[in-house]
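Hey team,

Filing this mostly as a record. A colleague (T.K.) asked me to run one chain through the structure pipeline before their review meeting, and I want the input and output archived in the tracker in case anyone asks later how it was produced. No errors, nothing strange. Just documentation.

Input sequence:
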Amino acid sequence: MNDQSSDEHIEPKEGHDSQVPPVTRHKPLERWLREPLVHFFVLGLAVFLLHAALDRKPETSVNDPNLVEITSADLDWMRTIFTKRMGRGPSVDELRGQVHQLIREQILSREAVAMGLDEGDTVVRRRLAQKMEFLFRNLAAMAEPTENDLRAYLSENRHKYETPLRVTFTQVYFSVDNRGAEEAYQAAQVLIQEDTDPTRATIRGDTSMLSPGCNQCSESDVRRQFGTEFARSVINLGPGAWHGPVRSAYGFHAVYVHDRQDAESPEFQVVKDEVKNDWMSAQQEENTRKVYGEVRSRYRVLLEGLPYELDVPGDP
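Output structure:
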């Protein structure tokens, strides 16, 4: 009897089978794909692969050590830095100058690294390029110049050592703003025709911040005080007389020239040491130009993907 009741209790009753919920069993792969951590990993991997594909450089720029490539990003960076420093965008020539400097730095820094100049040095590209610049200057032995060398250099660059033409004058100023152009011109002309004593003539003019004259002034001295137009006219006037009316940016002037000293060429012995220093500097610059030209010839440069050679040094 007990056995019967036990059996009856164990057997499910007919009519209750539909009320037992089915057991849902997920496959392992299906559960794994539902994990949020997996979703995050897959998304990160996709972003990484996309970035790698977009950022990949052409094989030529990676494998060719003699290829220098200037990209649009480089140009944008140059424009941005220039604008921050100067408060305006660079001109075409200014941007080209920066491009040439970057090309030079890239080439010289690579050469410096190839020679081991970067070992133990924490300074970056520009310092390496500077090292190469200094090295270039010492590659060719600088022989002492002969006297003939120095005399020839002095002859070719005489203007650098001449004592410039100098003039001493008094000027009387007549303002165009105050008088009008015609009246100012006529007032200066009257003073000149009267041959007024130059020591008393300044009271005849208009008040201004201009100097009443100039004592032993070169053309550049006169230009700084009175402007280019005035300086060009006055520097060649003869002494001992009134001249004009001479026009300037300020108005008209009556000018009395007291003295005029022509340009003088110095004696060779007086400027020999100065000429020698300048000759040595010129030779170093020429050697640097030639050596860099030889190094530059081994490199190909691409500017925004196109060949670029405007930075190649030519004959001076």
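Quick notes for T.K.: The domain at 166-261 is CATH 3.10.50.40 (Chitinase A; domain 3). Confidence is low (pLDDT under 50) at residues 1-18, 54-61.
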